[in-house]
Structures are given as C-alpha cells and as structure tokens.
Amino acid sequence: MVNALSPWGNHHLIPFGPLREPLTAFSRVDAAVIHHADMVPDQSLSVIESTILEKNRFLPVYRSAMTPSHFFKAPNISSPLTLGVLSEKIVLCVSAIGSPDSLVQRIETMGLSYVDRLDYSDHHQFQPEDIRMIKARLEDLKNKFSSKPTVVVTEKDYDRDSEILLGLDPFDVLVLCYKAQRRAELKARSTLLMALPNEHKLKFNSYKDAKTLMQAIENRFGGNIATKKTQKNLLKRQYENFVASSTEVIEQTYKRLQKLISQMEMYGEVIPQEEINQKFLRSLSQE
C-alpha cells in the first residue's frame, strides 16, 4: 500500500525514513494500492503509478479512499454524531498515525472556525505527559479564542489509547470514523484483471473501474455466443483436471487456481468458496 500524500518519503527505509519495504518489493507482490487517492491530483497519481509499474509492468494498481462517515463523543461509541457537529468550532487535531495530514485535511473541509494540530509518531502510545501537553495547548486555544476547543482523534488512536484520552476532560474528545470506498468495485476490477493473460494486464490496467474494464475486455476478447460457450467449457475442463505441479510452491498453485476461477467467473461460471477450498486441497494430494 502506498500513501498518495507522501508516497516515498525520503526514499529511506525505517528507521531512517518512512518506507517499510524498498521499491523493488513491487516486483514480488500481487497488487499495489494507492491509498488516499482522492486527496491528490490525478497527475500525482499517474506519477505514482508510473513509478510502481517501472518495477513491475504487469502489476495491477488500485486506488482507495477513506470517507468520513460520522463522529462519536468519547466514550459514547454507540451514539454517532453528524460531520456537521464541528461547524464553527475551534479544533485541535491530535494524531499518532502514519499520515496525520490526511486527518487535518479532512477536518479542514468541515467548516471549522480554526484548526490546530499536534502530531506524534506512528503508533505512539500516549503518556500522562502527553495529556498534560495536549491540555496546555487546549488552554492556550481557549484563552486565544475565548471558546472551549474540541479535540479530534482518529479511530485508530482512540482504540489504542481510549482510557488515557479521557484524561483530557473537561475538553470534549470527538473520534472521527471512516468507511472504505468502493470495496466491491475494487474487488470486481481485481477479479477481471486477474483473469487476463500477463501480456494484456499492462494495457488493461489503465481502466480504473470495473464497468469500463469489462467493456474493454468484451471488445477485445468477446467473440460470438458459440466462441464464449467453447471457452467456458474449456475452462471447466481445466478446472476439473486441475492439479498441483511438482515444480511450484503452494503459493504458486493457489494463485494459478485463483486465476482459473476468475476466468470462469468472467463467463458466468461461479463456484462456491467451499468447493474451491476442497478443490485446492485435493489438487495438493494428487501431486
């Protein structure tokens, strides 16, 4: 997964930079996801995709985004508040996540009167001295604007440090909740790309949604009804005769089976997951 807001940082690995893997790792993965894709221009996304494809020209590259859904006031997790609850408020964003800019940029679109921020390192465990520092900043904001500010944190930070964050009382702590966008869409596009032969993946990777990708595939490979029926029957026979090869590791066998399943789904042949699991296990025993 690549953070679109800061894709490569200073190009150094942890602990000298933000990267958990070198860029060469794209050569051995099955897919790449550009996260926060809705928060940067399309031109920037194209540059990121080009960098990824330089390392693996057949790699499917997807885009994802997190959409704010609601707040809740800690600790009342079961009482959602609308996103408009911060309108005209003074807000202090406190975060210990990998991309604090994503939180601040989201909050800045919600009609606030003023937004301040305190950023900690990713996965930071809040300590009593942190709470004192946060409360001191809140008091400064209160004195500056003659209004009690509100603290905003992410679900990730709240889940990790819910008890200690309650030490910010009497200041309210609002937790911003998200929902993932287009999960079904991404899965559909992934299934279609997986079904394509490697030599065609680079060309079809430019289609960014499942609908246009499917149309392009049909235009290129559609054929007439008789051709489709023949191809479907051929795939069914390949599935029936599927066995593991002595020259491949178990991961390769599984990927090969998944690709065959994806190709069958393109022709309307859907196989229950339980049957697929049994087929995979039987294929290993027949090796």
UniProtKB/TrEMBL annotation:
EC category: transferase
GO cellular component: membrane
GO terms for biological process, alphabetical: lipid A biosynthetic process
Keyword Transferase: yes
Pathway(s) annotated for this protein in UniProt: Glycolipid biosynthesis; lipid IV(A) biosynthesis; lipid IV(A) from (3R)-3-hydroxytetradecanoyl-[acyl-carrier-protein] and UDP-N-acetyl-alpha-D-glucosamine: step 6/6
Molecular-function annotations in GO: ATP binding; lipid-A 4'-kinase activity
Segment forming the signal sequence: none
Residues forming coiled coils: none
EC code: 2.7.1.130
Keyword terms, alphabetized: ATP-binding, Kinase, Lipid A biosynthesis, Lipid biosynthesis, Lipid metabolism, Nucleotide-binding, Transferase
Name of the protein in question: tetraacyldisaccharide 4'-kinase
